[in-house]
Specification:
With 209 residues, this protein is of the alpha/beta class. Helices cover 29% and strands 21% of the residues. It is built from 6 helices and 10 strands; from the N terminus they run E-H-E-H-E-H-E-H-E-E-E-H-E-E-E-H. The protein has an 8-stranded parallel β-barrel. It has a two-stranded antiparallel sheet with strand order 9-10. Strand 4, helix 4 and strand 5 (98-103) form a beta-alpha-beta unit. The longest helix is centred in the last third of the chain and has 17 residues, at 191-207. The protein is globular. Bound molecules: ligand LGQLAAA5. Ligand LGQLAAA5 binds next to strand 2, strand 6 and strand 8.
C-alpha cells in the first residue's frame, strides 16, 4: 500500500478531512520561503485535532536548530522533514526520525545526493531545482529514480489525481507527497481534489499489486 502524505496544511478542517479520507501523514511547513507557512500556535492546533495513527510531519528549510527544537517541543511532530541544504548529521541531531528532501530538478546530477542521507527514515524526491523551495507543482523525470536505494522513497513534485497512478507505476515508491495538486489556492485544500487524489492512489495500489 502506498503511503500518502498531504503537505502544506494551514487549516484544521483540511487536515482532519485528509485524515478521514485516508492520508497517513499531514505536513506542516515552517519555512518563511513557503506560501503555506504556519506559526507554532496554528501548527499545534492542527496537530492536536488529528486522530490517532496519523503522523504529523514538521517541514523545515535551513532553519536554526533552536527553532526546530521549539517546534518539536510545542507541536510534538512524529516526523521531521528537511528541505534545504541540511547535512545528514545536522538532521540527526534532534534525535527524531526525519525525511530528507532531494531536489531532482537537475536530472542525473541529483543522483549522488540520494546516497548522502543514510540516517534518514526516507527520502522525499521532489521536482524542483537545487536551492529552490518545494511546493512548486513541478514534476521530474520519474524514470531517473534508481530502483535500489537504501532508504524508502517518498515521491513528490507536481503530483495530482490525474498523474499519481502513472507515478506509482513507474517509481513504486513507499509513499507519495502532495501539496499544490490538492489545493484551490496555496495552503487551502480542495475537498474534491483531496478525495480524488486519495482515491487515485488506492486505485493504483489495487491495479499494480
Ligand atoms: O509546499 C511548500 O510550500 C514547500 C515550501 C518549501 C519546501 C517544501 C515545500 N513543500 C514540499 O514540496 C512537496 C511537493 O509539492 P507540490 O506537490 O509539487 O506542490 C510537498 O508535498 C512538500 O513536501
Amino acid at each position: 500500500m502506498t503511503r500518502i502524505k498531504c503537505c502544506g496544511m494551514t487549516r484544521v478542517e483540511d487536515a482532519v478531512l485528509a485524515a478521514e479520507l485516508g492520508a497517513d501523514a499531514v505536513g506542516l511547513i515552517f519555512t518563511a520561503r513557503s506560501r503555506r507557512r504556519v506559526d507554532v500556535d496554528q501548527a499545534r492546533a492542527i496537530a492536536r485535532a488529528l486522530p490517532p495513527m496519523v503522523t504529523t510531519v514538521a517541514l523545515f528549510m535551513d532553519e536554526d536548530a533552536a527553532f526546530v527544537d521549539e517546534v518539536i517541543a510545542s507541536v510534538q511532530p512524529g516526523l521531521l522533514q528537511f528541505h534545504g541544504a541540511e547535512r545528514d548529521d545536522w538532521c540527526a541531531q534532534f534525535g527524531r526520525p526525519y525525511l530528507k528532501a532531494v531536489a531532482m530538478g537537475e536530472g542525473d546530477h541529483a543522483l549522488p545526493r540520494l546516497r548522502a542521507f543514510p540516517g534518514a527514515a526516507g527520502l522525499v524526491l521532489d521536482g524542483h531545482g537545487l536551492g529552490e523551495a518545494g511546493g512548486s507543482g513541478k514534476a521530474f523525470d520519474w524514470s531517473l529514480t534508481p530502483r535500489e536505494l537504501a532508504r524508502p522513497v517518498i515521491l513528490a513534485g507536481g503530483l495530482h489525481a490525474g498523474n499519481v497512478a502513472d507515478a506509482i507505476r513507474v517509481v513504486r515508491p513507499w509513499g507519495v507527497d502532495v501539496s499544490s495538486g490538492i489545493e484551490s489556492a496555496p495552503g487551502i485544500k480542495d475537498p474534491s481534489r483531496l478525495a480524488a487524489f486519495v482515491a487515485a492512489v488506492r486505485a493504483a495500489d489495487a491495479t499494480h499489486v
